[in-house]
Amino acid sequence: MVHDTLVKQTLVYEGKAKKIWTTEYPDLYISEFKDDLTAFNGAKKSSEAGKGALNNKISTELFKYLNKKGIPTHFVEMLDDNHMLHKRADVIYIEVIVRNIATGSLTRNLGIEDGTILPFTLVEFDYKNDELGDPKLNDQHCIILDLVRSTAELDYMRFMARKINDLLKAFYAERNLTLVDFKLEFGKDVDGNIILIDELSPDNFRLWDSESGEKMDKDRFREGLGGLKVAYEEVLNRILGDK
Question: pTM surpassing 0.70?
Answer without folding.
Answer: yes
